[in-house]
Amino acid sequence: MDKTLKQANGDGRRMQLVHWKDFYVLEDRDLKGRGLFAAKNFAKGESLYVFDYWSEEIMPMHLTNHSCDPNGRFDDRGMLIALRDIEKGDEITFNYLLHPIPASPWNFECRCNSQNCIGWISVESSY
Q1: pLDDT digits (tens, 9 = 90+) for 62-91
Q2: 11-63 pLDDT tens trace
Q3: Fewer CB under 10 Å: which end of the chain, C or N?
Q4: Is CATH 2.170.270.10 the right assignment for the domain spanning 14-126?
Q5: How would you class 55 by CB atoms within 10 Å of its CB: exposed for 0-12, middle for 13-18, buried for 19 or more?
Q6: What's the confidence (pLDDT) of residue 87?
Q7: Which residues, other chains included, contact 113 with Cβ-Cβ below 8 Å and sequence gap of 6+?
Q8: Residue 123 DSSP class
């Protein structure tokens, strides 16, 4: 993966931090913080990336935000699959409660703003 640092744009609130071939990371200090965004279009059912939390210091997995209405879901092989078409520039998300990671005991207010948002994400909610 080609990782390059980018500069802040326009108002300075959104900043592109890291770029891979298929993804880039934006930071929005006013909303959710960092997020992973599509650098290309992905079709429904297409593989996005493998569930890999530990092999490198910064992985797409580390930067993918939760959503109560996600556009990705991990399959039985650990591959994040597009649940619907994802357009270039869309944020990549998955439901943390469906894929708990023991090393990440989530307990935070959800800011996904989806119609079916549950409001609070807690690792206890997934069991």
Answers
A1: 889 999 999 999 999 989 999 999 999 999
A2: 444 444 455 789 988 887 666 778 999 999 999 999 999 887 777 777 888 88
A3: C
A4: yes
A5: exposed
A6: 97
A7: none
A8: G
Please give the angle made by the CA atoms of 99, 37 and 23, to the nearest 5 degrees: 95
Residue ranges per structural domain of the chain:
14-126
Q: Which contacts of 42-48 are long-range, i.e. CB under 8 A and separated by 24 or more positions?
A: 42/82, 42/85, 42/86, 43/82, 43/85, 44/82, 44/83, 44/84, 44/85, 45/81, 45/82, 46/81, 46/82, 47/79, 47/80, 47/81, 48/22, 48/72, 48/79, 48/80, 48/81, 48/82, 48/86, 48/92
CA 36, chain centre distance (Å): 5
* Distance (Å, whole) CA 113 – CA 8: 25
Residue 88's contacts (CB-CB under 8 Å, 6 or more residues apart) are: 38, 39, 40, 41
